[in-house]
Amino acid sequence: MKTTSTINRRNLLLGASPTAALMIVGAATTDSAIAKTATTTVDYVPTFFNAVEWSFINAAVDRLIPSDGRGPGGLETGVPEFMDRQMELPYGHGAYFYLQGPFQPDAPATLGYQLRYTPREMYRSGIAAANNACRTAAGKAFADLTPDEQDQFLALLEKNQVQFSGPPAAAFFAQLLENAREGYFADPLYGGNRGMAAWKWIGFPGARADFTDWIDQAGRKYPYGPVAISGARD
Amino acid sequence: MAEKKKRADAVIIGYGWTGAIMAKTLTDAGLSVVALERGPARDTAPDFEYPRIIDELRYGVRGDLWQPLAKETVTVRHNLSEVAQPYRKYGSFVLGNGVGGAGVHWNGQLWRASPEDLRLRSHIEERYGKNFIPEDMTIQDYPVTFEELEPHFDHFEKVCGTSGVAGNLRGEIRPGGNPFEGARSDEYPTPPLPSIHVGGLFEKATAELGYKSFPLPAANSSIAFTNPYGVRLGPCNLCGFCERFGCFLYSKASPQTAILPILATRPNLEVRTNAYVTRILRDNTGKTATGVLYIDEDGREVEQPADLVMLCAFQLHNVRLLLMSGIGVPYDPVSGEGIVGKNYAYQMMSETAAYFGEDVEINPFIGAGAAGQRIIDEFNSDHFDHGPHGFIGGSSIFAGATGGRPIAQMMTPPDAPKWGKGWKTAIRKHYRHSAPIGAQGSVMSYRDRYLSLDPTYKDGHGLPLLRLTFDWHDNEYKMAAFSAARVEEIVRVMKPEQQATLLMRPGDHYDVRVYQSTHTTGGAIIGTNPSNSFINRYSQSWDVSNLFVMGASAFPQNIGYNPTGLLAGLAYFSAAEIRDTYLKSPGPLVPA
Fold it and tell me: Domain for residue A71, yes or no?
């Protein structure tokens, strides 16, 4: 198994990188991947993401903000739903960004985002490219890799060390991580941060926005739980 | 053909802080005034109402109160040979939009400049000699003194219900205030709020080091307060949503909170929103403005004739509109000739993040853009001997985040994982127990840093974008390294478990991806004669005497303070002269 796929796995990497040691090991069991899929958000039907993309998003969110360990994970707090709903808003269509050409994607990084992609386009191309890279390397889509393999693959994306068509791998990863964090921490009205679980985890009181009673109690732990814009409180 | 509106006595371009100040001045004098605002109408109710304004994603991240970049942005390059690229997503600075402008979503840190900031070149030459100023550094004096501006600083502080402690009252140094400030004629109108927790830790640490910390002057009223215009402000509750948000409490001063309520019913003022000015019109002599051309909310081109044109847009937009209107000589960085676009400057920030143990309750979400924070001014302006250090300028050094918004203001140590299980652990461990100590540093002006029209990129109407040519110079790297070293010393005394410093080092380029400061300055600078400036001491154009330009575009170089107090002082100084002299006898207020 290993011997037949090693060369393909190497294709994941751009050139002869010292990070070759981080190559995906495809031999691990898929048990945990199956277990993980069971926690996928089932009560939400995505509008923007198709079935394959939805599997990717759920699997990726579960690695970026995993459910294991202490603290709420991205799946049970509705982060994939948040991301799908954002894609249908002006944001997803790139309405917040200046997207007139010409584009110089190779301009110095310090001059900022210089790609032509809207967030929708970034996901559409990025997910396809990521799944292609995973299939080439391990014969499976990203969602079907083991959690460890998924972590390794995401780390390669982050470092821009995956051969990728469309947007640069690191730009796609940055989009993914940015939106995942937004969904985790935004007010629940956008579909993520269900039950204000992420706010409770860190101790942020949400939309409470009145600390008159704490102005002269600096240094003492703030005792009240969060409030959402909807008025929901904990 | 543009539709031609009825002539007005005055037209105001941009309805933010300086637009509101000018609208009040000119309507007080009985003039008919039309104010043109590029963005929508906005008021505390309904636009900033609780709870909908307490939405980090919408306002703090997407930026629904900011200028939509899709329609118009700027381009940026680091030097003359680089090809400028559009600022496609918000990062380095955020631009205002709509009634109130950036005065809606500012932090309310309300400063005067130091007296020597206003005569910087002379002061540096006198104290350190001419050779102390690098050859390519193009700093210059303001043509107006601190003493002349003082009554206007004082007035604006009262308009804003500013909370603070006087450190120099009529020449007497007072405990608890800023001992380095210029003499003020009066106390702050409202007392400071108590320090937030990190402010208290900073106060102790700086006292131990022999520094005199004081409450950051805050345009957040700390009590119920009626300003000189009879407008009422409410007490700040440290809600943690100043920066990037409108204030739902009528506490953080904004044009809406402090000035516009008294203008709303004036029959001689008309405010037109979604009116995008594209050109200042002149007669065929080129010496007199005749009005402006704008695109209205239906996309029609409209001409508004007026006898007086007040350019009150944001600094960058002032300069762009002058260049698009062909007024003044565009600055040429190769020859050093020309004025419009000259001396663009910025600020250089550095910061040390302090990660305390779980027994230190920072409560980062309790705070404001300014109220509750503490600051020292020992290492700003020329408050210390620069001789051994070999740079000009400095930083104000302050404790306290502007809020604890979890998407954008989450603090985790640099070595903490950015995602995965380890990230979840890190955010839990550090969120409630970390705070930044920051240094807001000045940036000088240079021959090769300037503003011009971009040759390639256009706005939604096909008009050229403004191009920024900017990068750091050695003087600023030295300034920041010095400031950051002071901050690190202070933080060490605060004894966090861990600390990490963010600092621009020699070779680091200006990076538009990271928020630094919205304090962009220069491009239509103020000075003593037409060869060194676009406007005279009353902010009047040397070229076109019925055109006045307000805002930080006047600053010949930047300071280590927030700019709003200085630019409001310049605006009120100009307003007084317009009222007392210009309106009686229009024409140049200073002989060229």
Answer: yes
Nearest CA in chain B to A95: B70
What is the reported pLDDT for B400?
Answer: 83
B156 vs chain A: nearest CA distance in angstroms?
26
What residues of chain A lie within 8 A of the CB of B73, using their CB?
98
Q: A16 to chain B nearest CA, in Å?
A: 26
Q: How far apart are CA A59 and CA A57, in angstroms?
A: 5
Among partner residues B239, B418, B431, which is closest to A211 by beta-carbon distance? B239
Per-residue pLDDT reduced to its tens digit, B268-306? 999 999 999 999 999 999 999 999 999 999 999 999 999
Q: How confident is the model at residue B362 (pLDDT cuts 50, 70, 90)?
A: very high
DSSP B190: B
Range of the domain at A162: 2-202
Give the nearest partner residue to B407 out of A114, A154, A186, using CB atoms. A186
Would you put residue B161 in left (φ > 0), alpha (ψ -120 to 50) or beta?
A: left
The complex's ipTM?
A: 0.96
Give B254-288 as a DSSP string: -HHHHTHHHHTT-TTEEEE-S-EEEEEEE-TTSSS
Considering only the beta carbons, identify the residue of B63, B88, B510 that sits closest to A110: B510
The helix/strand/coil state of B25 is helix
Residue A221 lies in a domain: no
From the list A30, A20, A86, the residue with the least C-alpha distance to A59 is A30
pTM of the model: 0.95
Q: Return the pLDDT at A42.
A: 57
Q: Quick check: A214 contacting B, CB < 8 Å?
A: yes
H/E stretch holding A7: helix A2-10
> Which pLDDT score, from 0 to 100, does residue A37 have?
42
Q: Which 8-state DSSP code applies to residue B140?
A: -
Distance CA(B341)–CA(B323), nearest Å, equals 8
B339 in Cβ contact with B421 (< 8 Å):
no
* CA distances in angstroms from B375 to A88, B154, B205, B523, listed in the order given: 44, 20, 12, 30
Radius of gyration over every alpha carbon of chain A, rounded to an integer in angstroms: 20
Q: Which of B62, B243, B419, B427 to mutate to test binding with chain A, by most A CBs within 10 Å of its CB?
A: B419
Query: What single string gives the DSSP state of each residue in B560-575?
Result: SS-SHHHHHHHHHHHH
Domain assignment present for residue A18? The answer is yes
| Eight-class DSSP state of B96 | B
The pLDDT tens digits for A164-189 are 889 999 999 999 999 999 999 999 99
Q: Is residue A63 less than 8 Å (CB to CB) from chain B?
A: yes
What CA–CA distance (Å, rounded) separates B100 from B97?
Answer: 8
Cross-chain residue pair B363–A222, CB shorter than 8 Å: yes
Q: Does A218 touch chain B (CB under 8 A)?
A: yes
pLDDT of residue B323: 98
CB-nearest partner of A204 from B57, B85, B406: B406
Six-digit token string for A60:
């990726």
Q: Does A66 touch chain B (CB under 8 A)?
A: yes
Task: Decide if B62 and A222 are in contact by the 8 Å CB cutoff.
Answer: no
Q: What is the gyration radius of the CA atoms in chain B, in angstroms? A: 23
Q: Is A224 on the interface with B (CB under 8 A)?
A: no
Beta carbons within 8 Å of A166's beta carbon, 6+ residues apart: A117, A125, A126, A128, A129, A172
Count of domains in chain A?
1
Supply B557's token pair: 């170089």
The verdict on residue A60 lying in a domain is yes
**Chain B residues closer than 8 Å to A91 by CB:** 62
Does the annotation mark B386 as catalytic?
A: no
pLDDT tens digits, B30-88: 999 999 999 999 999 999 999 999 999 999 999 999 999 999 999 999 999 999 999 99
Handedness of CA B356, B359, B364, B369 (dihedral sign): negative
